[in-house]
């Protein structure tokens, strides 16, 4: 049981190195000119089309579901890197198999619940802020419609429309209160009313994504009661394959080379695992003295 005294230290170390495995995905997708032509052709039709419908015609636009998928991939990456590092730390200390399994399951549950709770609080607070801003904008439209119309005209002038055209467009949009609010929210606040965030959905997805990633290095220890070399190697191999797959998946959002993204993610995860394995080995030896 003496070797278990370093468990908390390893958990902190694993969480610290996890942050290095995250790399914000920046979109770098070349435009499809033919699709743009078709979209512009549709815009010339007399019927009014929702902004979401227009954006959806360009398949490289990633909103809503795309954001959820990206968050899920990062959640899997978090769980995979942190739990692999944690398990390798216990394995480096030559802990008994049941302790390694216990540490892996505990790390999975603790991390998944922590991610879910954090995501819920974050998205809920963000949504509450956005909803308040929208309500304030609604109140301004009701109490000072002339000023809001002037603001909208100035926004369109800043975008390049002549003054007369900008004023005419603003006046037309202000005729319908629903359209006026939607336009002001998008143009003035920079928000999409249909994409304010769903706290419970984000929380559940974060829990499942983290748990899925954290489960990978634990699987071999469900089939053995010890932490002998074959089980440790199997855990490392499964984690390596999963790390590469997660890294390659990120190329769906970055547009970069899938092989390079996979190798980079694998390298970061391997560095985290090697670090905690070394720490576990040192502390494990010191507790035996």
Automatic annotation (TrEMBL):
Tell me what organism the protein belongs to.
marine sediment metagenome
Mind telling me what this protein is named? Answer: VIT family protein
Q: Which residues cross the membrane?
A: 99-123, 204-225, 231-254, 266-286
One GO term (biological process): intracellular manganese ion homeostasis
Q: How does it sit in the membrane?
A: Multi-pass membrane protein
Q: Which UniProt keywords apply?
A: Membrane, Transmembrane, Transmembrane helix
Q: Name one Pfam family in it.
A: VIT1
Keyword Transmembrane helix attached: yes
> Where is this protein found?
Endomembrane system
Q: What is one GO cellular-component annotation here?
A: endomembrane system
GO molecular function, a single term = manganese ion transmembrane transporter activity
Asked if the Swiss-Prot or TrEMBL record annotates the protein with the keyword Transmembrane helix, the reply is: yes
What residue stretch is flagged as signal peptide? none
């Amino acid at each position: 049981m003496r070797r278990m005294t370093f468990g908390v230290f390893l958990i902190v170390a694993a969480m610290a190195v996890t942050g290095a495995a995250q790399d914000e995905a920046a979109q770098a997708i070349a435009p499809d000119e033919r699709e743009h032509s078709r979209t512009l052709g549709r815009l010339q039709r007399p019927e009014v089309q929702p902004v979401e419908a227009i954006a959806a015609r360009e398949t490289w636009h990633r909103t809503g579901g795309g954001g959820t998928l990206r968050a899920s991939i990062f959640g899997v990456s978090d769980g995979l890197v942190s739990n692999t590092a944690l398990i390798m730390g216990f394995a480096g200390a030559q802990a008994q198999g049941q302790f390694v399994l216990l540490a892996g399951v505990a790390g999975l549950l603790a991390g998944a619940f922590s991610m879910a709770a954090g995501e819920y609080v974050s998205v809920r607070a963000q949504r509450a802020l956005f909803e308040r801003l929208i309500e304030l904008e609604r109140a301004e439209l009701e109490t000072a419609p002339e000023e809001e119309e002037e603001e909208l005209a100035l926004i369109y002038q800043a975008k390049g429309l002549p003054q007369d055209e900008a004023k005419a467009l603003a006046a037309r949009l202000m005729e319908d209160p629903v359209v006026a609010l939607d336009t002001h929210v998008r143009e003035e606040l920079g928000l999409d009313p249909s994409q304010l965030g769903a706290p419970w959905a984000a929380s559940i997805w974060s829990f499942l994504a983290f748990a899925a990633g954290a489960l990978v290095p634990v699987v071999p220890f469900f089939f053995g009661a010890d932490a002998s070399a074959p089980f440790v190697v199997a855990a490392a191999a499964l984690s390596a394959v999963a790390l590469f797959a997660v890294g390659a998946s990120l190329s769906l959002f970055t547009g970069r080379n899938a092989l390079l993204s996979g190798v980079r993610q694998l390298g970061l995860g391997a560095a985290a695992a090697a670090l905690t394995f070394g720490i576990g080995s040192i502390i494990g030896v010191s507790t035996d003295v």
